[in-house]
Write a structure and sequence with these properties.
Length: 238
């Protein structure tokens, strides 16, 4: 269980996140939606350990407080981030991208086994294992970014805008994958501008506005968020 309490992020005089609180259990998808600049990425980065200063509040995974720990220790405690724009290493092969994620592990045979297991799970990555990751399509790169995060066997996966730049059909595939991860018992925190799609898959949706959570709806009521966005029921976001 990820618990976030009173999390704030400031960049100098700019207050990006203002005391937000939420939780995400294993086997649950919680989405944080909001407009550009609402503070979504800042919140995720703060939780994952990607910000060096300006962060306050409490973040725990299964009761262990994480906010003072470096990112790699947070990963070891079960928290993994799939960053915005995927951040894959384009000139390395697909396999090397996964190997980089296991570089610090001492149990090399187990690390190799974990990579093999991921290749089984993501056949497209197995098929392209020896090719440069930069030649993968956007959807395949997103799969690689998710596979890379899964290597650490997280109990909570944080994803920043996985739908960014992808065609609707490819977004469907990525969201189907998130649904699978939920069924595997992983807790998923999904940051999205694509509010409608994210809310459709999520167990709960939080609306972030200017750094504050201004609405929270469970799955049966996420349609209510449309009102906040001014979307008509038939508006399709791309
Ligand atoms: P987007 O969808 O555009 O990524 P977001 O909801 O993820 O938006 P953030 O990127 O977290 O929002 O930005 C929140 C606020 O913090 C914005 O006002 C932004 O300009 C500011 N901000 C973000 N990163 C920095 C930074 N490194 N230095 C200064 N201000 C920043």
């Amino acid at each position: 269980m990820l618990t976030v309490e009173n999390l704030s992020v400031t960049y100098g005089p700019v207050a990006a996140v203002r005391g937000i609180s939420f939780s995400c259990a294993e086997g649950e998808i919680v989405t944080i939606v909001g407009a550009n600049g609402a503070g979504k990425s800042s919140a995720l980065l703060a939780i994952a350990g990607g910000l060096r200063s300006g962060v306050s509040g409490t973040v725990t995974v299964n009761g262990a407080a994480l906010l003072t720990l470096p990112p790699e220790t947070r990963v070891a405690r079960g928290l993994a981030l799939v960053p915005e724009r995927r951040r894959i290493l384009a000139s390395l092969t697909v396999r090397e991208n996964l190997q980089v994620a296991t570089a610090s592990r001492k149990d090399k045979p187990a690390a190799h086994r974990d990579i093999r297991d991921l290749m089984d799970r993501f056949p497209i990555l197995a098929a392209r294992a020896s090719g440069p990751a930069g030649l993968l399509s956007g959807g395949e790169q997103q799969q690689l970014a998710i596979a890379r995060a899964l290597i650490a066997k997280p109990s909570i996966l944080l994803l920043d805008e996985p739908s960014l730049g992808l065609a609707p059909k490819v977004i469907d595939e990525i969201f189907a994958l998130l649904d699978e991860l939920r069924r595997d018992g992983i807790g998923v925190v999904l940051v999205e501008q694509n509010a409608r799609r994210a809310a459709a898959i999520a167990d709960r949706a939080l609306l972030l506005r200017q750094g504050s959570i201004t609405a929270e709806e469970d799955h049966d009521h996420v349609g209510a968020l449309d009102a906040y966005f001014g979307l008509s029921p038939h508006t399709e976001e791309s």
